[in-house]
Design a protein that fits this description.
heterodimer; A: alpha/beta; Alpha-Beta Plaits; 2 domains; 6-stranded mixed beta sheet; 10 helices; B: mainly alpha; about 75% helix
């Protein structure tokens, strides 16, 4: 069964901004799904519609087969939402916040306290359960929102940039927790700006740009589309000139490292052979940037250029008095 | 009862009451001080020179009016500040994404505001006992009119909070509508004292019916017919409740 089925979803805001254009998307049960897109692409609007915070202009959304517009209450029981910005009462205490949230979902007080203790412990917040939540750090606030979203044990958890602005240690602990709930059967949809996060955690991915889905595939197959990968190699010796390697573009980064653009199909062994012959010993090697990030940037750039070209063509058409295309 | 909606309702009400008690210095103390001053200045100092009003000494006459004034301003003020605060701080989203139906959200918030109105009303009643002896003549009328009035103004507060976009917007209605209507609603005088034209104008003010009926419940005398008064108040409950539900259903000011 599909955890989420979106059909022909559109949203035009009162000011005329078209945030979503006829979007269709399916997320299977148990999936760990990434929704990527630049700022203003329509990700948050889509999440807002799924969680009923935004009214759709047209189209339908079903959560485990339940339509959110006709059976809102039943659908909402299955969804947990972690929004981008803190949206709890900053003058309430973490324990109060999560227990109240359980109450809104009809969970009795005693059971809510048991779940709250478990979740706040798992997310390292139990010690802070009785402080004013406004005194929590940014990372703690995000973990609190994750705990809150899990109080009613949703079948579908939607996280809108859950690790934005938190340090790497907390980010990893959040990843670990989300992975564990996905392993336990919760379907997870994640939007993130950290493409490393999507690459490491997610199995399937949709890229949204200018209100439309531009790609919807598996992370694995998307990564196979990378035709050039850029590596940084740190040499043992000081480098004065860039070594020449057959079939590979090289650039001198500084006197201790070079960058190479390795086309798909070419082996790294041949690169190391050439470097060996040039008398250069390599101490370490790393990707210049996250692989998915490279692909994402290229895809979005391409989409933006196509859109700009379309607009230019449209402008040309409208400027032609006879209606012909120049 | 353990129906999910019942638990949800209890959660909203408990949360609201906790809020009222947490900030009791802002919610309970100011009306108590203001009303004590009214009792001293209007009831004691000026009232002793006014003599009888509606067949009662002036202090007795203004006690029901001042209790009702506190109930009205506090039930309205509680709803508008709590609901708009939740909207402004975005934590209303906690409830909006939950499965709770709009009816439960409305009843929950209204109950919280009614509780605040009644708490403050009870405090003012206790303070009034330092100034006059009071016996409640018709308990049923007194309780029903005070609860219905608190419901009316809680709902009106919700409508204000739904449309409000900034904090200024939640003070405009209390300042320019609620306060004048309350002061002209027979709190300090019997509308029988007014010329006939102004008596008729006063009858267009719903607060006249509320204050007069509440005064009837306590003192046994009223400026208006009980049937008309209850009909007007119940009509307001129905109309304002329907508007609140419609706005919540459409998500006006809450869902984009």
């Amino acid at each position: 069964m599909s955890a989420l089925s979106i059909q022909n979803l559109s949203k035009t805001y009162a000011g005329g901004v078209e945030a979503l254009k006829d979007v269709s998307l399916t997320v299977e049960e148990g999936d760990f799904f990434a929704l990527l897109g630049p700022n203003g692409a329509g990700k948050s609007t889509m999440i807002g519609i799924i969680s009923s915070l935004v009214n759709a202009s047209s189209g339908s959304v079903k959560v485990f087969g339940t339509d959110i517009s006709t059976h809102r209450s039943a659908a909402m029981r299955m969804i947990g939402l972690v929004p981008q910005e803190a949206n709890f009462n900053q003058f309430e205490k973490p324990l109060e916040i999560v227990v109240n949230q359980a109450g809104y979902y009809g969970i009795a007080r005693a059971q809510a306290y048991e779940r709250a203790e478990d979740l706040l412990n798992r997310l390292n917040l139990w010690e802070k359960r009785n402080v004013l939540s406004r005194t929590l750090s940014g990372g703690m606030k995000r973990r609190l929102m994750i705990a809150r979203s899990m109080m009613h044990q949703p079948r579908l958890l939607i996280l809108d940039e859950p690790t934005a602005g938190v340090d790497i240690e907390i980010r990893r602990s959040v990843w670990k927790y989300i992975e564990s709930i996905n392993t336990d059967g919760t379907t997870v949809i994640l939007t993130t700006h950290y493409l490393e996060e999507a690459e490491q955690l997610c199995r399937n991915i949709a890229i949204i740009d200018q209100g439309a889905i531009v790609r919807n595939t598996t992370v694995k197959s998307l990564l196979t589309e990378i035709d050039i990968e850029t590596f940084v190699l740190d040499s043992v010796q000081e480098l004065n000139a860039c070594p020449e390697i057959q079939g590979v573009t090289t650039r001198l980064r500084d006197d201790g490292s070079i960058e190479i653009d390795l086309p798909r199909g070419q082996l790294l062994n041949s690169v190391f052979d050439d470097l060996q012959r040039a008398g250069i010993e390599i101490r370490s090697m790393r990707n210049k940037s996250n692989r998915l990030e490279e692909l994402f940037v290229r895809m979005i750039d391409h989409n933006t250029q196509s859109s700009a070209n379309d607009q230019r063509s449209a402008a040309t058409v409208s400027l032609t008095p006879t209606g012909g295309v120049k | 009862m353990s129906h999910p909606n019942w638990i949800g309702l209890k959660t909203i009400v408990t949360k609201e009451i906790n809020r009222i008690l947490r900030i009791w210095i802002q919610t309970i103390v100011p009306p108590a001080i203001t009303m004590t001053l009214y009792f001293i200045i209007f009831g004691n100092l000026i009232g002793s020179r006014i003599g009888q009003m509606g067949g009662h000494n002036y202090m007795e006459f203004i006690v029901p009016g001042l209790i009702m004034m506190s109930v009205i301003t506090n039930s309205y003020g509680n709803m508008v500040s709590s609901f708009f605060g939740a909207k402004f701080g975005k934590h209303i989203e906690e409830i909006l994404v939950s499965p709770l139906p709009n009816t439960i959200i409305l009843i929950g918030y209204v109950t919280g505001s009614v509780v605040r109105g009644l708490m403050v009303g009870a405090v003012v009643l206790l303070i009034s006992l330092f100034f006059t002896d009071l016996t409640i003549t018709h308990v049923g009328v007194t309780l029903s009119v005070v609860v219905l009035t608190a419901i009316v103004f809680s709902m009106a507060g919700m409508i204000n909070a739904i449309f409000a976009q900034k904090f200024d917007d939640i003070s405009i209605i209390p300042t320019f509508v609620l306060t004048p209507l309350t002061y002209l609603g027979g709190v300090f005088y019997s509308i029988g004292l007014l010329p006939e034209f102004w008596q008729n104008v006063s009858l267009a003010n719903p607060i006249v019916y509320m204050v007069s009926t509440f005064r009837y419940g306590i003192l046994g005398t009223s400026d208006v017919s009980l049937t008309v008064a209850f009909s007007v108040i119940v009509l307001f409950v129905i109309v304002l409740g329907s508007i609140c539900l419609l706005l919540l259903h459409r998500g006006v000011g809450l869902r984009s």
